[in-house]
TrEMBL record, chain A:
It holds the Pfam family ABC_tran. Residues 6-241, 240-492 form the ABC transporter domain. GO terms for molecular function: ATP binding; ATP hydrolysis activity. The keyword Kinase does not apply. The lineage of its organism: Bacteria, Pseudomonadati, Pseudomonadota, Alphaproteobacteria, Rhodobacterales. CDD domains: ABC_Carb_Monos_I (cd03216), ABC_Carb_Monos_II (cd03215). SMART domains: AAA (SM00382). Keywords: ATP-binding, Nucleotide-binding, Repeat, Sugar transport, Transport. This is Ribose transport system ATP-binding protein. PROSITE patterns: ABC_TRANSPORTER_1, ABC_TRANSPORTER_2. SUPFAM superfamilies: P-loop containing nucleoside triphosphate hydrolases (SSF52540).
From TrEMBL, chains B, D:
One of its GO terms (molecular function) is transmembrane transporter activity. It is found in: Cell membrane. Keywords: Cell membrane, Membrane, Transmembrane, Transmembrane helix. GO terms for cellular component: plasma membrane. The chain crosses the membrane at residues 40-58, 65-85, 91-113, 164-186, 219-237, 249-266, 273-290, 296-315. It comes from Amaricoccus macauensis. It comes from the Bacteria. This is Ribose transport system permease protein. It is a multi-pass membrane protein. InterPro entries: ABC_transp_permease (IPR001851).
Length: 499, 323, 295, 323
């Protein structure tokens, strides 16, 4: 086998008194894709950041081409051909796509920028990724997947010998994932070493040559990827046998609690109508950009919308999120970093933000808050020190905290947008069980998800959206992957399924 | 590694205050005398009360440059109203209460105006309050016809105990300041309002998605600040019984500086009221110490003041970067 | 020529403290009155908060208002000299008030206060009121040439008179600032015989601080400028305010009026009018008490 | 839906400017006369040159409150140096060049000091520059001994053409201002420096991770601003021939207001130099128009100014919310 280009050799890393990596060794070889998997908080992102020179190890050695190396700056690692795509977006929101891609390595002609050249190169890179976003769009207005493609393009721009990708596919559709994988293969052909992590084990199976599995900050298995199938990967990661990811479907749903008809969200969705019953889980599927998020944000008073909404038969007007909450209606955002959590605050403040009145009797009862946090940590297996700011929790643990936060306000009707983004498979199972439990308790639930399996496995009924409209509704066994895709893409099957 | 850093942000301002106290005491024995201590505390009260309100505004990601001229305007208005009610009400408690009501009402309205432009129309706080700063300063000049508005002499004598009098030898401004601080500290730490301010200042999108009434909370911070400017004015007017275009000049900068010296973050998201109190005291003490000693040319007072402000913040630097 | 409207520009510092407020009041009142008296006179009144703004004002008066005469109370002498010179070059009549220009011979008419004289009068009074000598504290105005001239005049006048100046700090012609400064002086010096507040606004702050501290050692406070409340107290033989020194803000009215007269008639009004500083005592106070003035 | 919003942010300030121009022209025919136009442009040059530098500082997420007193201090220093070199150098071009060099060097050093404290020690820009504002103001008071520092009269006469003279009837301040604006606009739009400023203001972590030299860029913005304060002072001194504690008072607020009126975002991440120019012109025109009419009491000028500033920003409001 070829010599490693970049390797960790017995690397440990501590944050304050807490050690999160314990003697991790990992070797990346040219022309191979190395997958790193593990539970949320296992230390994958930390290991990757150390490899890419974003953080120094507390002890142990980073070797580049066999020689111990300490990168003085990210620029130095980059100059030596190492690029990283972060789990959390690493883009300047106010700059355009092109400006972000070339940030820090602008092309110049003399003193001035060579804008045409940069524009052309940006276009080239995006085309390579099948991404059609305009190069002069501000990043703040992009969809999550376009942001991810921008990130990827930014990494591809650098002539890389080593490409490190932290959950690049979490926000991508399967089609986009396929495009990315094509690029990864091309890079592998050219002899680059690639490190990659994902909680979607089928992707890992599909592309990895080498595999490392981490648990609790240590490597538990490392070897040739062909030696483990998906099931074995899951078991090794979680440390227990994994089966029955999705809970059994519930009993027949009760009476209608939410009726929406003719909902318009200007610019995003038109004429949306559906009903939701007590004890029911309604899945909402569709391609990215089909307006699912905006529809339900409109419904919950988070953006301007018109239309008729009845809650438990009573017509209501919802213009603000708190009006929705007063009606027992709550929306969990897909965007945990900029809309979900206060990254500079601790877990407790985040957990109770939405349900603060439950903890307030004149003054805030911090003891009760702590108790609620204990419960949430237990229930959702949130790992990480309580002393750290939420921004320093691992991505998956942030997602779990966001989930716990929304549930704390005990909504009767809850819209969950991409609930398991970046969550490890073990925790996913727990979350699905919890969601089903809520339904059984008599709550009504909407699950928006881009993971087809999730929608099918969890929902009693599936609403499919296409270009801002309801394309159709599928119930029970009719909700097959094939049927959903047809509706989402606008390819109608022989017999019409009209809502 | 973590805990000593966290300490510094807490210890920093306190340390700066202690250094100043030691310095003051060693330079002049009268520094720690009861009279001097009460003088300084009472003088700090106006800026202090305003700075407590400013702490909430800044914590919620806002700013208010208009407080100084707002105070001048409210003082002018109060004096005008009291003087013109004098013939009908005569000297007595009712007219003082009227004056106080006018001050509070005017503060409320002024705070509302700033707050509505900022929170409902979404205009940059810096611009709104820079504008209203000019407007109030102009209005008081106009009310005073360029000169000084003075409270009727008899009325002033009657009203004066509100600044100079007190309970158990502690004067009213100090008592009111202490109350405002206590209520403010509790509100910041232990009420939903305080939490919501920090959440909005930290990330207003997240606050919105968490069903926090963002616009209303933001508006409330400005209204509370306006009211506190009213309270400060109620205590200010009996001191000299007058208002002029020079009243409250630069109070806004002093209040903001106090808030930041105290450890509140200018970009919002984190605030502490007790820190603000320390900031206010540091600022007043610098002036007091300079007056009590003849170390330097009085021309250089401003330079020393400036240097100490920067030093006081350097003392808590580590945290800043850590946060 | 006769029926033609003539424009008089009046440029003064803004009303940032009591004395300047009084001056603003007199300027406005005079302009209003003269506009009625002389229908063919037009007035432009501007107030500036700093010297640069005042230069702008004067430029605008020349370029866009085509003033025939300019009455200016310079914010500061130096920076205004050039621009006023330019106004002169445009053919306008120039009247300078209070603070002179730094080049001789630009103005056609000079209505001047006497700052060294103000300081001297004050110093002589303090010396005479403390014949056995004594300890005093001094409050200064906004750091300016005027303030320097006054303080120098004062110091010269008390030379060799056994008067010790314990401390001098800037009260900036501001009541609040001087209140704080005086409180601290009182903490610092257990024995003070008198205070030279050098301005009536500052005297208000000083008196409040003394009263609040209940100190009996201070025999009197000498202000300055002739604020009506202070003149009244002199008149009423208030022992704390036994005297005052004039520096009438109404000098601006005199200047505007003389300029107007010069412009509409052929009366010779050019030259120099010094409005000297006079000591106000209970004996002559009546003559300086104008209850209707705002200052 | 998208494009009209984007337009408003561009059209807004321009519209406000046009309204003011129409208003001025209708109120006084001399308003558009060459003399008045050059006067207004020339006097806008000081604040304008400084505001261009401020645009970069603010775009990069910073702030500088010290520019006004820095200008006063540099002016004072320049005058002192020139006066004391007079006996040896005599009146002539060398001494003027010496003065200019002193101004630029002092601006550079002052900008460096602010910048190092902010970018290397990580202290809040508001506090650092509030501190240095006090320090420079004090220093100039002290240099001038409370009074005015004046350039030797002969020297001043020789130096004066730098303000009053020019090329083809366009005076030097206007020419220099125009050059600074052009270079600034190009630097903001078409150099890596401009992009890096926006990136840092938008998210300094991201910039750091993209190997942008964050601290150096930030420092550079303050140094550039300091240099531009030096340039402004070089043009200012021949106009007034003196420096005093009142020199440059409140320039900082005016410069910041101009930047924001022009559409640059106070919290950083986006800046435009041409907008700043419009902001500067709007502010100068308000003063000019008020001088050209007798519409209001001079006491109320400040109120009108305040109201117009707010209105000018309301005009571009839509965008703000959209952004
Ligand atoms: N800057 C930091 N300060 C304190 N703790 C940190 C910091 N960064 C990471 N951690 C902690 O290190 C642990 C490992 O986090 P890491 O992000 O590497 O996990 P991960 O394997 O990438 O998980 P996920 O699958 O959820 O992304 C977590 O407990 C996290 O809270
Ligand atoms: N103008 C915008 N500004 C900010 N974010 C936007 C804008 N337009 C779309 N987005 C975000 O882009 C994402 C995709 O938008 P959209 O709602 O159209 O897709 P979707 O059907 O919800 O699919 P998905 O949720 O899978 O991305 C959402 O996160 C949405 O909030
Ligand atoms: O403004 C000054 C005033 O306050 C002082 O009392 O007298 C001289 C004036 O110029
Ligand atoms: Mg991770
Ligand atoms: Mg979505």
């Amino acid at each position: 086998m070829s010599e490693p280009v970049l390797a960790l050799d017995g690397v440990s890393r501590s944050f304050g008194p807490i050690e999160v990596l314990h003697g991790v060794s990992l070797a990346l070889r040219p022309g191979r894709v190395h997958a790193l998997i593990g539970e949320n908080g296992a230390g994958k992102s930390t290991a990757m950041k150390i490899l890419a020179g974003y953080q120094p190890p507390t002890s142990g050695t980073v070797r580049l081409d066999g020689a111990p190396t300490a990168f003085a700056s990210i620029g130095e690692a980059e100059a030596r051909g190492i690029s990283m795509i972060h789990q959390e977006f690493n883009l300047a929101e106010q700059l355009t796509v092109e400006q972000n891609i070339f940030l820090g390595r602008e092309l110049k002609r003399g003193l001035l920028l060579d804008k045409p050249a940069m524009r052309a190169r940006t276009r080239e890179l995006l085309d390579l990724l099948d991404c059609h976003v305009a190069t002069d769009r501000k990043v703040s207005g992009l969809s999550n997947s376009d942001k991810q493609m921008t990130e990827i393009a930014k990494a591809l721009l650098r002539e890389t010998r080593v490409l490190i990708m932290d959950e690049p596919t979490a926000v991508l559709t399967s089609a986009e994932t396929a495009v990315l994988m094509r690029q990864v293969r091309a890079l592998r052909e050219r002899g680059a070493a690639i490190l990659f992590t994902s909680h979607k084990l089928d992707e890992v199976k599909g592309i990895a040559d080498d595999l490392t599995i981490m648990r609790d900050g240590a490597v538990v298995w490392s070897g040739d990827a062909s030696e483990k199938d998906e099931h074995a990967m899951a078991s090794a990661m979680v440390g227990r046998e994994m089966r029955d990811l999705y809970p059994a479907k519930g009993p027949a749903p009760g009476e209608v609690v939410l009726e929406v008809s003719g909902l318009n969200v200007p610019g995003h969705a038109e004429d949306i109508s559906f009903t939701l019953r007590r004890g029911e889980i309604l899945g909402v599927a569709g391609l990215i950009g089909s307006g699912r998020t905006e529809t339900f944000e409109g419904l919950c008073g988070l953006r301007a919308a018109t239309g008729e909404v009845r809650v438990k038969g009573r017509p209501v007007t919802i213009r603000h999120p708190w009006e929705a909450l007063d009606l027992g209606l709550c929306y969990l955002t897909e965007d945990r970093k900029t809309r979900g959590l206060l990254l500079r605050k601790g877990m407790r403040e985040n957990l109770t933000l939405q349900a603060l009145d439950r903890f307030t009797h004149g003054l805030i009862d911090t003891t009760a808050e702590e108790a609620a946090l204990d419960k949430a940590v237990r229930e959702f297996d949130i790992r990480g020190s309580r002393a750290v700011r939420v921004g320093n929790l691992s991505g998956g643990n942030q997602q779990k905290l966001l989930f716990a936060k929304t549930m704390l306000s005990e909504p009767e009707i809850v819209v969950i947008d991409e609930p398991t983004r970046g969550v490890d498979i073990g925790t996913k199972q727990q979350m699905y069980g919890f969601i089903r439990g809520l339904a059984t308790e008599g709550r009504a639930i909407v699950v928006i998800s881009s993971e087809m399996q999730e929608v099918i496995g969890l929902a009693d009924r599936v609403l499919v959206m296409r270009r801002g409209r309801v394309a159709g509704e599928l119930a029970g066994a009719a909700a097959s992957e094939d049927a959903i895709v047809r509706l989402a893409m606008g390819v109608l099957p022989a017999e019409e399924t009209v809502a | 590694m973590k805990s000593p850093k966290i300490q510094m942000s807490v210890v920093g301002p306190v340390l700066a205050l202690v250094v100043l106290l030691v310095l003051g005491a060693s330079l002049n024995p009268s520094f720690l005398a009861w009279d001097n201590v009460t003088n300084v505390l009472a003088r700090s009260a106006f800026i202090g009360i305003i700075a407590v309100g400013m702490t909430f505004v800044i914590t919620a990601g806002g700013l208010d440059l208009s407080v100084g001229s707002m105070a001048a305007f409210i003082a002018g208005l109060m004096i005008l109203v009291m003087n013109s009610a004098l013939p009908s009400l005569g000297v007595g408690i009712p007219i003082v209460l009227l004056g106080m009501a006018v001050a509070l009402a005017a503060g409320l309205v002024a705070g509302c105006l700033n707050g509505i432009l900022i929170s409902r129309l979404g205009i940059e706080a810096f611009i709104v309050t820079l504008g209203s700063m000019g407007i109030y300063r102009s209005l008081v000049t106009w009310l005073a016809d360029g000169g000084t508005l003075s409270l009727d002499f008899g009325l002033r004598t009657f009203y004066q105990p509100v600044y100079y009098g007190g309970l158990f030898g502690v004067s009213w401004p100090i008592i009111v300041f202490a109350l405002v601080v206590i209520v403010g500290e509790i509100a910041m730490r232990s009420t939903a309002f305080g939490r919501h301010c920090a959440a909005i200042g930290s990330n207003d999108q997240v606050a919105k998605y968490s069903s926090v009434k963002v616009a209303r909370v933001r508006l409330t911070t400005y209204v509370v600040l306006g009211l506190l400017v009213g309270v400060a004015t109620i205590l200010y007017v009996p001191r000299l019984g007058s208002a002029s275009p020079a009243t409250g000049l630069l109070w806004e900068l002093e209040a903001i500086a106090a808030v930041i010296i105290g450890g509140t973050m200018l970009r919002g998201g984190f605030g502490r009221v007790w820190g603000t109190v320390i900031g206010v005291l540091i600022l007043s003490l610098i002036g007091n110490i300079l007056n009590l000693t003849d170390l330097v040319s009085p021309y250089l007072n401003g330079a020393i003041q400036g240097a100490i402000i920067v030093l006081a913040v350097i003392l808590q630097r580590d945290t800043r970067q850590g946060q | 020529q006769d029926g033609e409207t003539k424009v008089i520009g009046v440029s003064i510092p803004a009303a940032t403290h009591g004395w300047a407020g009084g001056m603003n009041y007199f300027a406005q009142a005079t302009v209003e009155r003269l506009e009625k008296v002389y229908p063919n006179l037009d007035f432009v009144l501007t107030t500036a908060s700093d010297p640069a703004k005042q230069v702008n004002d004067i430029e605008d008066m020349v370029a866009a208002r085509h003033v025939n005469a300019l009455v200016v109370l310079p914010f500061e002498s130096e920076p205004l000299t050039g621009p006023v010179q330019n106004a002169k070059a445009s053919g306008a009549w120039i009247t300078v008030v209070d603070r002179g220009l730094s080049v001789e011979g630009i103005e056609d008419l000079y209505v001047a206060g006497d700052n060294p004289g103000f300081g001297r009068e004050s110093g002589e009074y303090v010396a005479s009121a403390l014949p056995e000598g004594g300890k005093i504290v001094v409050l200064r105005g906004i750091p300016t040439t005027i303030d320097n001239e006054r303080v120098e005049g004062f110091q010269k006048a008390i030379e060799g008179k056994n008067i010790e100046i314990l401390g001098m700090e800037h009260g900036n012609w501001n009541r609040d600032d001087s209140f704080a400064v005086m409180q601290d002086f009182l903490s610092k010096y257990p024995q003070i015989d008198a205070v030279w507040a050098s301005d009536d606004d500052m005297a208000v702050g000083v008196l409040a601080a003394i009263e609040a501290a209940g100190r009996k050692d201070i025999r009197f406070v000498l202000g300055g400028a002739g604020m009506k409340e202070m003149v009244k107290r002199v008149m009423d033989k208030d022992t704390m305010i036994p005297a005052d020194v004039t520096y009438p803000p109404a000098m601006i009215a005199t200047a505007i009026e003389l300029t107007a007269v010069g412009l509409v008639s052929s009366a010779p009004v050019s030259g120099k009018f010094i409005i000297g500083s006079v000591l106000i005592t209970p004996e002559n106070a009546e003559g300086y008490y104008f209850p209707d003035s705002p200052f």
